[in-house]
Amino acid sequence: MSTEQHTHSRPLRVTPQQIAAAADPDALLSIDTVCVLTDMSRTTLRLKVKEGAFPAPSHLNRRVVRWPAHKVRAYLQAQGRDVTQLAAV
Question: Can you give the pLDDT at residue 4?
Fold first, then answer.
C-alpha cells in the first residue's frame, strides 16, 4: 500500500512503524495511517465516516482523532482484504 496512489492537498506522513502498529488491535491510528491502510484519501475517509460506511474515530481532545486499529482491521476484513500481513506493509 503506497501513498503515491492518492492526490492530497498535503502529503501523507506515515512511517513504517505507524503501519506496523496497525497489527496491534489496541493501537490508535492517525488519519494518515488509516488512509494508507485503506487506500482512501482523507476526503473519502471523512465522507465514508459521515455516511456511516466507515467506523467513526475516537476524539482524544478537540483536535486529535484516532481510529482504534481493531475497527480499521474489521473494516478491511469486511472488504475482503487480508489483514494478517498488516505488519509487513
Answer: 46
DSSP secondary structure string for all residues of the chain:
--GGG---SS-----HHHHHHTTSTT-EE-HHHHHHHHT--HHHHHHHHHHTSSPPPEESSSS-EEEEHHHHHHHHHHTT---TTGGG-
- Low-confidence stretches of the chain (pLDDT beneath 70): 1-10, 85-89
Q: For the chain, which domains are there?
A: 3-88 (1.10.1660)
pLDDT number for residue 86: 65
Contact between 44 and 54 under an 8 Å Cβ cutoff? The reply is: no
pTM assigned to the model: 0.79
